[in-house]
Every structure is written in C-alpha cells, then in structure tokens.
Amino acid sequence: MKFFIDTANLDQIKEAQALGVLDGVTTNPSLMAKEGITGKDNILKHYVNICNIVEGDVSAEVVATDLEGMIREGEELADLHEQIVVKIPMIKDGVKALKYFSDKGIRTNCTLVFSPGQALLAAKAGATYVSPFLGRLDDISTDGLNLISEIRLIYDNYDFETQILAASIRHTMHVIDCAKIGADVMTGPLSSIEGLLKHPLTDIGLAKFLEDYKKGNS
Ligand code: G3P
C-alpha cells in the first residue's frame, strides 16, 4: 500500500518524508488556499517545491471545467516536473480529458469520485489513479469504506490497472480499514500516518526495558 500525504503544507510534507514511508503527495485547490498559496505562478512554484521534497507522485489539480481548459492546464502541470500527476474532476469533460491524457502517456488522478459507476468510468478512460472520497461519504451517513470495497471488486473483476487511491481519509482507522480492503494507495493527513505507530503497551514495554537495563548496569 502506498502512503500519500494530503496537504500542501511543506513542513508536514518534510516531516512525513523524514519518517521514510512517504510515497507521494496529493493536493487540491482548497489545500493550496489553506496554506495561503494563491495566484497561478505561486501555485506552480509550490508544486515544484513539493516535488523537490518527495520522491513519489504529486497530484496537481486543474481548475478548468471544460475539456480545452483542462487539457491546457493539465499539459502545463505535467510539464512542470516528471513527478506531477494531473488531477481531473469526475465530470463529463473530465472523462474525455482522462482519455486524452491517457492516450498521451500523461498520468492522471480522477478526483471527486463518490460512486462505483464513476470509478468504472475513470478506469475505462485510463485514469492512473481514482480517488474515492470516503470521509465525505461518512460525513453524510453513507458507508465510505463500502465504496472502496465495491471499486476493488469491480477493478479486480476486469483487471483494471487504475489504482484505487482512498482519499478524504480522516483518521488512522480509515488507513487500516483501507489496507484490509486492498486500496492501492491512501492519502490522508500526517496524523493519520503517525497514529499507526501508537500503542500504550509499546510505551509501557519500552519504559520497563529501559528501567531493567538501568538496574542491571548501575
Ligand atoms: O484527497 C481528498 C481530500 O483532500 C478531501 O479531504 O477531508 O476535505 O474531505 P476532505
């Protein structure tokens, strides 16, 4: 399972990278705005800065919603750095854009996916990644994890190569549940990754080992 961090915050990206388990980064226009990154030039520079911190894929989202605009923006983003994956929304022109980029060998991440049918279309159009938003489904009393399972089943039925990128992960249990289902990638906040290492018995056990070592060596 690949671990991506879902943020545009450079300090958090550096911290996750330093842990040694980071495989990539996802961003979106809301995450960019949260960090105060505005204006096309600053946004493009920020993507390059992120690529220079991590070794893996970095999703960069188009803001156009028409095919021509998505193609223009997507090509510009893909030209920025070899690690860039063009993030395209699941709308009608988005499906056409996925197919266009797939034919050109440009990698894509189909975002804002909330149903198995949307995921099927994204795979048919040749998306590299599909991003089902499980947290936002949970927010409206719908089982987000069930969507990940349904997409896994459909993709496995037909050997689709599109990777399931479980997105809108909110906490550590989401990560574990997605790993059980077999999501290829998860993207979440730093806290969802760091939460994996926590266990009180580890802390208690370590304290006891150190105490006993001191006793034996004093
Ligand atoms: O990767 C998608 C993500 O950015 C959305 O997360 O927490 O805003 O639903 P959230």
TrEMBL record:
Pathway: Carbohydrate degradation; pentose phosphate pathway; D-glyceraldehyde 3-phosphate and beta-D-fructose 6-phosphate from D-ribose 5-phosphate and D-xylulose 5-phosphate (non-oxidative stage): step 2/3. It comes from the Bacteria. It catalyses: D-sedoheptulose 7-phosphate + D-glyceraldehyde 3-phosphate = D-erythrose 4-phosphate + beta-D-fructose 6-phosphate. Keywords: Cytoplasm, Pentose shunt, Schiff base, Transferase. CDD domains: Transaldolase_FSA (cd00956). It is found in: Cytoplasm. Gene3D superfamilies: Aldolase class I. Its main location: cytoplasm. GO terms for biological process: carbohydrate metabolic process; ketone catabolic process; pentose-phosphate shunt. PANTHER family: FRUCTOSE-6-PHOSPHATE ALDOLASE 1-RELATED (PTHR10683:SF40), TRANSALDOLASE (PTHR10683). Transaldolase is important for the balance of metabolites in the pentose-phosphate pathway. Belongs to the transaldolase family. Type 3B subfamily. This is Probable transaldolase. It comes from Flagellimonas pelagia.
